[in-house]
Every structure is written in structure tokens, then in C-alpha cells.
Amino acid sequence: MTQQIVELQGVGKSFRSADGTARTVLDGVDFHLAEGEIVALLGQSGSGKSTLLRIMAGLIAVDGGSVRYRGQPLYGPARGIAMVFQSFALFPWLTVQQNVELGLEARGVERKERAKRAGAAIDLIGLAGFEGALPRELSGGMRQRVGIARALVVEPEVLLMDEAFSALDVLTGERLRDDILQLWDDGAMPTKAMLVVSHNIEEAVLMADRVLIFASNPGRVRAELPITLPRPRDVDSLEVRALIDEVYKLMTVGEAPTAGRSRGQPAHMHLSDRLPDADVDRMEALLELLVDDGHDGRADLPQLAEEAELADHELLPLAKALALLGFADLADADLHLTVLGRRYVEGTHTLRQQLFGQQLLAHVPLAAHIRHSLEQAPSGELREEPFLQLLRESLDAAVAERVLRTAIEWGRYGEVFEYDFHTRLIHLPVGDALASDGTPNS
Predict the structure, then answer these.
(1) How far apart are alpha carbons 310 and 293 in whole angstroms?
(2) Residue 307, domain member (yes or no)
(3) Among residues 239, 152, 142, 251, which one has the least CA distance to residue 200?
């Protein structure tokens, strides 16, 4: 029977914002990591994935539920768990050798032994000969190798990788990922289990034995996909492409038609819901791509990602934004134009703005709230702070800022309202392109 190393049951975690408002980041998370497996965790930014990793590492205490390591409650950092961060997190004034030795030094390992073990880890990760180099003398890929060596030198049972390859260029990231998998499959690593947080669906499918899909607001595991294909996996094989398509379906299941919403209707939002991080130019380019190159208004997301040269974390918000506004329908990893979307693509710039403004007021409560508030203000203008404060009641401060920025960008394009970047005032547009009920003026 496979032994479980880390177990989470009903884990919940909340943080308080600057104004004292509690925000639930994780709620009811059940998860286990067993010996001999690699698990990939996918989800949008801000969903709580990094918080979950820090809880598993014993760096953050939970507010509810339980965390166990080897059957024992975890109340602090576990000696058998190590993390690799996206940002490398190296000390710039220390050499490669010294950076790798840090964890051993903190554990009281004597100098000769830690030099020996650090040298072995550096050699294992492919950096032999660079022991005396400073981080600034290394490429991004080499700096991340130092971070991995620093994690491996303490011989952890569990390796947690938080977006470990995302700060690297594509080729460097792929090479480093392949090297890690080779070490894993050869049994050359001391590690017995890995949890990899990623934005990259292809990466998750190529690496993992299980892919977990994380939901947001609050964060929780909402779907799981076992993968039994042997490694190494061919990204161009039919089996891998089918798995990638299946993960896309799981990632977009929230946009599929549900009870009370027929196909082609935008999803219902609440006032303080998070908006997809999508800019208008890219949304329009994606709509135009759907009517070009023989798509006839429809394409699957993996195909669109390749054609548009967009990463998964860039494409998915764009697709969700188009579905939210009713210009496209998103279901079963397919994106296709609605009747309104085709009218939008074929319309003039003025018509596009009018349609965008209509849909924005109809389907994005935050934008409608801002517009209504401006209409009630005698001056027709308001500071942005009250709207930020509203969003901070349910969103992290940084996320709230991004949501408001997105709403403002969308509102400016649809001529619903304007924004002064110097005064940080939102105001009604000159000429008022929309009537108070959100319909275009004639």
C-alpha cells in the first residue's frame, strides 16, 4: 500500500486586510501527497495555491482543519519538506556553494560535511565548476538550478515547487524541467514526492501523475485528473494532446452552460467578483482569429494557444472575459463566437465600442455600480478609493487593484466612464456615449 506523506483535511485559511476585513483564502481543502508521485496543481493567480504550499511546508499555520506529515500533526517547518520558489531567492553576495550550504548551516551541519553535500547537490543539478560564481554571473536557468540544489541538499522527502520554471524563457524552462524528471525517474534524487504549482497545462500533463484543478474565492480542490502514461511523454502524441484538452475542459468547466443559463448566455457575476485579467486589444484579436484561417467561428483552446502564441495563463482569462461579455461561448475547452460576437467582429470601431459598453453594463455588476454611482454624483466624478475599498472586502488588496484597473480599462473602451490617471478620478465621459439604461444613444 502506498504511504501518504502529507495529508490535509478540511484546511481553511483567512487573512486580514489593512482595514481589518477578514478574507478567506482557503476553505475545506482536502489533499494528500503519497510516496512515489508527482502532483501538479493548476489554478488562476490569487487562488491560494502558494498559500497551500506554505501551509504544507509548515511556514503558515491553518485556521481550520488539520495538516499531517507522516501521520503526525504539523505545527512548524518540517525537516523533510523543502521548497523551490519562482523568484530564485538567492543571496546575491554569496557564491553558489555558499547559497547551497545555507540550509545545512541552519541545521548545524559541520563545515566539512556541508561542503561535501553541497558539492554533490551542485554536481547533481548540473552546475559543477560554478561553485565560486556569484548569482549575478549566472543565467536565469542556472540561478534556478542553484535554488533547486539548495532544496535538494537537505535531502527532503517532499519537494514543493512554486512556479519554479515560469520565470525562465520557454526553452530554458523545458530543459530544466526535463532534467528534474530525468533525475526523478532515475532515482537519483532523495525526494519521494513532488508537488508542482504551475500555470502551464502542458507542463502539468508532461510531469504529473495527478493534476489537481484549484478553484478560487476561496481556494479549494474542485477537480482531479489521474495520468497513467509512462514518462518521458511525447507532447505531440495523441494521448498527451487528449489529456491537455481534458485539463482545459476542467479549467473552463465554470464557464460551461449550467442550470438557469442556456448556451451562449454570459455567466452571472456578483459585484465584488474577480474579473478575468484580459485587455481589450487581445480580446478583439482572439475574436478575429476565430473568424480567420478557416475556424468558422470556433476553435479548441489548445489550438488557439498555439496559433495566438499565448501561454495558458494568458489565453484562459481572455476566453473567460469573452464568455462573460457574451461575445463567445466557452464550453468543453472550445471557444466559439456567439451571434453578438460575430456582429462585433464585423462591426465598425464605433459599433464595437457601443456593443462592448452595453455588454459591460449588462454583465459586469462592478462596472454598472461605478456608472450608477457617477450618475448620482452631482459632479459626475468620484475618487477610485471607495470602489477599491468595496473590492478589498472580499479580495486581496493587490487583486482588488487589478480588478478595478480591468474594469476601468473596459469601461473606458466601452465609453461607460473615463479615468484621470493624474487625479485618480473616475468620471462620466464627455458627450455620454451611453444612456442611463446602458443602451446606445441614437
Answers:
(1) 17
(2) no
(3) 251
CB 344, CB 287: distance < 8 Å: yes
pLDDT attached to residue 291: 84
Looking at residue 349, what is its pLDDT? 94
CA 269, CA 366: separation in Å to the nearest integer? 9
Verify that 246 and 352 share a domain, yes or no: no
Is the pLDDT at 324 greater than 80? The verdict is yes
Last residue of a domain, one of 195, 225, 251: 251
Cell, residue 265 = 448566455
Is residue 245 domain-shared with residue 357, that is, in the same domain?
Answer: no
Domain that holds residue 378: 347-427
26-74 confidence digits (pLDDT tens):
989 999 999 999 999 998 777 788 889 999 988 889 999 999 999 999 9
Torsion angles phi and psi, residue 199, rounded to 5: -100, -10
Q: Is the dihedral of CA 187, 191, 195, 199 positive or negative?
A: negative
* DSSP codes joined into one string, 116-173: HHHHHHHHHTT-TT-TT--GGGS-HHHHHHHHHHHHHTT--SEEEEESTTTTS-HHHH
pLDDT per residue over 75-90, tens digit each? 888 888 988 877 767 8
**Closest-CA residue to 12 (of 215, 218, 214):** 218
Q: Of 218, 251, 284, which closes a domain?
A: 251
